[in-house]
Design a protein that fits this description.
It contains 70 helices and two strands. The longest helix is centred in the C-terminal third of the chain and has 30 residues. InterPro entries: Int2_metazoa, INTS2.
């Protein structure tokens, strides 16, 4: 066998020992002196050159060492021949060698004439014996150059094979390489030596005499090597040579192995070096270097390395005959020995009878795996999985038997033991072919039964939450639901590698699991008894009880077998912490589905029970009270947020499935509104906002549910306000927070409010301190603040107190909006003597949001409190929409489908009206009523009118202050009017109306079709930016048959045209002019004056368009543009005293003529003002 010949050709030769090589590396003269003569003989070329050549080191210590070297060499006879070799003219030798290389190149590498060596009388060996030193150098150099030029890998060379002259030839070789490094690079020489017999020995001597070239030579040999070294003679010779080099310098062996992996060449060398290292560094208990190395290659992240080594394993198995000289065979044998070394010593494959187990429960023929061997056993299992699954290793019968023995051994109850059992179980699933006989199958069943029995003990003793019991349950559930791909994913995930597992290979295991070990009923009954994971979070990895429960809920096993799972889920939700475990939200979703949807149509009652209201309230016990929130909380914020998610998702799912449930004649119970009122939803959402990174997708899921079911808690203004409260300003306020501010109690605040009629200072001081508190710290003061709001309506209360109370209310609104709104509405009710005030509830206010506006009339003229009232109104209008939509869905199942439409009474042929349309009509009426009430509030009261306040004059005063140079007195009056409470309330109302119109433009249309006092038109058009949308429906409003609506439309249009001087306004204005032309012909004289002001407004519209460059066919615009281009002609008209002074004799004219003159005069004034402005 060629492999055997290669391994034995150098066995009789003396190699350089690791001790000698290290001494050469360090130039340790003392160690060199201790070498034996045969060892020293191998190092003479380097030592002689060291002693004779001029050194670079001129130190005294080296001088002493050099003397020792000379003394060491003085007794060696072979030194003289080496000295003679060094006295040759190497320059001439190099020139001749170069000429010979050129000649060989011309002859194509043939063996013709030689310049270095001529006239060989005898064989090469005899010539070498009879030659002097110069000729010996030429003989070796010529032979070496011939080998380097040969194409054939192995060459028989008499000079390098003769055992008598090996040492002399090695001396010559070392001297040649040292003196002619450019002609003979050491890497090229090393490559050439692989082609001859004894090449490994020559190579080791060469490197030993140039010890600093070790890494260079090794890297060169590896880089030029084959990808698969055991496939060819050359690869095997190269591997053996490198092994000899590494035996000479064992400290660099692992570095050479790293080069092998880096280049992906010579895999056999990497394994061989590892085997050598394992034998030298024998470690019984720890994981061996061989296991670590091969596992790293197959399980590492480098796919190129994995493929390279996998090919080595496959090719090695394809060779017909594996002998002990094969590196793969050696590796497998070593791994098997390591596996057998950790197997329990007392082991019997005899199946234990049940009677024996009952009699002696503490004694088992299955001896346990030693604790110190568990980690090594796990590493070996993963390695064999990688070898079989990734590299395609086919185990022998002996390997399969020993693997099964190891997999079914019983480790101690430690975390490593839990890991070992999980790996063993997954390996059985992945490689079911390891179990081939009935005895082995029975052994596996007994071991699986032991796993089930010992699972609880292992979990309690090892302290590991994710034990193998959950994995058993999960696999059993997957088998029952035939989710084989899920089992394969689970196995690959546990083993930590992607291997190909055919689903068909799991058929026998499926039968064992579903029929012998884990029937579905056993699975569900066992799952409920599994303890919940304490402090469940994303930090706890592995397969947990929650995975099993989730899978069982999905397959509806609990409802099929009437096993209650509600308590387990509730306990697990309570035992959660951050960061949120990713399986919790899917668990809640599938649990809700199992509550609402029966497992089968034939059994509609087969559903799980929902969490009770009392259990939910227990979760929020510390938050509901308000005082000392952090101290009273028994449950984590994670548990509270998860339960909130459960309630909101449950209610949403209940509404979404109303029709389905009605068809099945089922009506699951909804959670009461009183429960929802007690849960601090906004406070919890705010807490979740600060924990978004740790809560995963829970925060966004809660926001989605809120936006759908509680839109009044998602008002944009509130979010903006929260940003201000939780930003940098909040941190600065906390820095200013003094002990005095912390010491104020709600009782002290109540006493201060009681003294408001006589003393404002105390209240002012306390509430200013309260502004420094956070929102949650303010909760205890909420009731006192709201209950005393009515006192703030009395005259004489400073504006600063009102504004501070408004500020505190807005802060509280970020954490407890719903409860705060109810308290505020009840506090601001009008106080009527002898009439008991009604206490409204949250439900009352959602059904009728207009209750908010039935407050004390003084609120309408108190801007800070009116701001609060409008905020509540907006919220309850949104809440009412959600409430009615939910009510519609809830009651849908109470009505037969044919009654979902209602016919008008007394009209048999009238179109039917759906309940959805009725709901929309109710909401529209509700919104429009709110708008109408707010518009009425904008009108001045009789008392304000008596004091000279006019809403129309408010807007005109703005124009007069800005555009005219009125006397100081008039300016002061305008400023007084603008700074009044009415004006501020009007601004607040206009802001709300703007938001309502933008949210639903149909409200604006409905309100204007209903109409409102025309005195408010200057205010609404100027104060509500979205009023421009009215231009879209004014033509429709003008087309109404009622004259009052037509006049209101034209009045509205006149103000819009002034506010929005747009081409669209002009086109609608033309329509109005045409309509008015028609009206003038049909109206009576008394009604004509009603539209005179409208014509004036239209004139203003026309004038506003003069500033545009648009040419138009409209005669009015054309005339105005001509006036603009010829202002001198227009000034002539302006100077006409008859126009200016109105001195025409109008007394004798017809009333119609008077009207026309009045209109003409007004239009001229408007045009004059516009043109002069241009």
């Amino acid at each position: 066998d060629q492999q055997t010949v290669i391994m034995t050709e150098c066995t009789s030769l003396q190699f350089v020992s690791p001790f000698a090589f290290e001494a050469m590396q360090k130039v340790d003269v003392v160690c060199l002196a201790s070498l034996s003569d045969p060892e020293l003989r191998l190092l003479l070329p380097c030592l002689v050159r060291m002693a004779l050549c001029a050194p670079a080191d001129q130190s005294q210590s080296w001088a002493q060492d050099k003397k020792l070297i000379l003394r060491l060499l003085s007794g060696v006879e072979a030194v003289n021949s080496i000295v003679a070799l060094l006295s040759v003219d190497f320059h001439a030798l190099e020139q001749d060698a170069s000429k010979e290389q050129q000649l060989r190149h011309k002859l194509g590498g043939g063996s013709g004439e030689s310049i270095l060596v001529s006239q060989l009388q005898h064989g090469l060996t005899l010539e070498f014996e009879h030659s002097d030193s110069p000729r010996r150098l030429r003989l070796v150099l010529s032979e070496l150059l011939a080998i380097m030029n040969k194409v054939i890998f192995f060459k028989s060379s008499e000079l390098f094979e003769s055992p008598v002259y090996l040492e002399e030839a090695a001396d010559v070789l070392c001297i040649l390489q040292a003196e002619l490094p450019s002609l003979l690079p050491i890497v090229d020489v090393a490559e050439a030596l692989l082609h001859v017999r004894n090449g490994a020995w020559f190579l080791c001597l060469l490197v030993a005499n140039v010890p600093d070239s070790f890494n260079e030579v090794c890297r060169g040999l590896i880089k030029n090597g084959e990808r698969q070294d055991e496939e060819s003679l050359g690869g095997r010779r190269r591997t053996d040579a490198l092994r000899f080099l590494c035996k000479m310098n064992p400290s660099q062996a692992l570095k050479v192995r790293g080069m092998v992996v880096e280049e992906c060449h010579l895999p056999g060398l990497g394994v061989a070096l590892t085997l050598d290292h394992t034998k030298n560094e024998a470690c019984e208990d720890g994981v061996s270097d061989l296991v670590c190395f091969v596992s790293g290659l197959l399980l590492g992240t480098n796919a190129k390395v994995r493929t390279w080594f996998g090919t080595f394993i496959r090719n090695g198995q394809q060779r017909k005959r594996e002998t002990s000289s094969s590196v793969l065979w050696q590796m497998r044998r070593q791994l098997l020995l390591e596996l057998m070394g950790i197997l329990p010593t007392v082991r019997s494959t005899r199946i234990v009878e049940e009677a024996d187990v009952d009699m002696e429960p503490n004694v088992s023929v299955y001896s346990g795996l030693k604790e110190e061997h568990v980690v090594k056993a796990s590493a070996l299992l993963r390695l064999y999985c990688a070898l079989m699954g990734i590299a395609g290793l086919k185990p022998t019968e002996e390997e399969a038997e020993q693997l099964l023995q190891l997999m079914t051994s019983r480790p101690p109850a430690t975390p490593a033991g839990v890991r070992f059992v999980s790996l063993s179980f997954c390996m059985l699933l992945a490689f079911s072919t390891l179990v081939s006989t009935p005895e082995q199958e029975q052994l596996m069943v007994v071991w699986l039964s032991w796993m089930i029995k010992e699972e609880a003990y292992f979990e309690s003793t090892s302290g590991v939450s994710a034990s193998f019991g959950e994995m058993l349950l999960l696999v059993a559930m997957y088998f029952h639901s035939n989710q084989l791909s899920a089992i394969i994913d689970l196995v690959c995930s546990t083993l930590g590698m992607k291997i190909v597992i055919k689903p068909s290979s799991l058929s026998r295991m499926k039968t064992i699991f579903t029929q012998e070990i884990f029937t579905e009923q056993v699975v569900t009954a066992h799952a409920v008894r599994v303890p919940v994971t304490s402090n469940l979070s994303a930090n706890i990895t592995g397969f947990l009880p929650i995975h099993c429960i989730y899978q069982l809920l999905r397959s509806r096993s609990f409802t099929k077998h009437k096993v209650s799972i509600k308590d387990w889920i509730y306990r697990q939700l309570c035992e959660t912490s951050t960061p949120l475990h990713p399986q919790l939200l899917p668990l809640i979703d599938v649990y809700i589905n199992s509550i609402l949807t029966p497992a089968s149509k034939s059994n509609p009652e087969a559903t799980n029970q929902p969490v009770t209201e009392q259990e939910i309230l227990n979760i929020f016990q510390g938050v509901i009270g308000g005082d000392n929130i952090r101290l009273n909380q028994r449950f984590s914020i994670t548990a509270q947020l998860l339960v909130l998610y459960y309630i909101l998702s449950y209610e949403e799912a209940l509404l979404a499935n109303t029709k389905t449930l009605a068809a099945m004649q089922r009506k699951p119970k909804s959670y009461s509104s009183s429960l929802m009122d007690q849960i601090p939803i906004k406070f919890l959402i705010r807490q979740a906002q600060g924990l978004q990174q740790e809560l995963g997708g829970l925060h966004s899921a809660l926001l989605r549910l809120l936006a759908t079911n509680y839109p009044h808690l998602c008002i944009v203004d509130d979010w903006i306000c929260e940003e201000e409260i939780t930003g940098t300003d909040a941190l600065l306020r906390r820095m200013l927070l003094t002990n005095n501010a912390k010491n104020h109690s709600p009782k002290q605040l109540q006493e201060a409010f009681s003294a408001v009629p006589v003393n404002h200072t105390q209240v002012m001081q306390i509430i200013e301190h309260l502004t420094l508190l956070s929102a949650s710290e303010l909760i205890p003061y909420a009731e006192v603040l709201t209950s005393n709001m009515s006192q703030l309506l009395n005259s004489g209360v400073p504006r600063r107190i009102l504004q501070t109370v408004n500020k505190l209310w807005m802060v509280l609104n970020t954490v407890m909006p719903r409860r705060l709104w109810v308290m505020t509405v009840n506090a601001l009710q009008p106080s009527i003597k002898f009439v008991r005030q009604q206490k409204y509830t949250q439900n009352d206010l959602m059904i009728d949001p207009l209750i908010v506006l039935r407050c004390d009339q003084r609120v309408h003229r108190c801007p800070p409190l009116m701001d609060i009232t409008l905020h509540m109104l907006n919220g309850y209008l949104l809440a009412s929409k959600a409430y009615l939509s939910a009510h519609l869905k809830e009651t849908e199942q109470d009505r037969p489908s044919q009654n979902n439409t209602i016919g008008l009474v007394g009209q048999t042929d009238a179109p039917e009206v759906t309940r959805e349309e009725l709901k929309n009509a109710l909401l529209a009426a509700q919104d429009s009523a709110a708008v109408q009430i707010l518009l009425e509030i904008c009108l001045p009261t009789e008392e304000e009118k008596a004091n000279g306040v006019n809403p129309d004059s408010l807007l005109r005063n703005v124009q007069s202050v800005i555009t005219t140079s009125a006397p100081n007195k008039g300016m002061e009056e305008g400023e007084d009017n603008l700074l009044c409470n009415l004006r501020e309330v009007q601004c607040l109302i206009c802001c709300l109306l703007h938001q309502m119109y933008i949210a639903d433009p149909n409200i604006a249309k409905l309100v204007h079709f209903q109409g409102y006092p025309c005195e408010l038109l200057p205010l609404t058009v100027a104060g509500i930016p979205s009023m421009h949308i009215c231009l879209d429906f004014i033509p429709e409003l003008i087309a109404q048959p009622e004259l009052e609506k037509q006049i209101f439309a034209i009045q509205l249009l006149s103000h819009l045209c002034i506010q929005y001087a747009l081409p669209k306004s002009l086109s609608v204005a033309r329509l109005a002019v045409n309509v008015m032309g028609t009206l003038l012909t049909v109206l009576t004289q008394a009604k004509r004056y009603d539209i005179m002001s409208l014509l004036i407004q239209i004139g203003q519209v026309c004038a506003s368009d003069v500033a545009t460059q648009t040419r138009d066919i409209d005669p009015i615009i054309t005339r105005l543009q001509q006036i603009k281009e010829k202002p001198s002609g227009w000034s002539q008209i302006c100077k006409d005293s008859s126009y200016k002074n109105g001195s025409r004799d109008t007394g004798s004219m017809d009333p119609d003529v008077q009207l026309c003159h009045c209109i003409e005069r007004t239009v001229i004034e408007i045009i004059n003002m516009s043109v002069s402005g241009i």
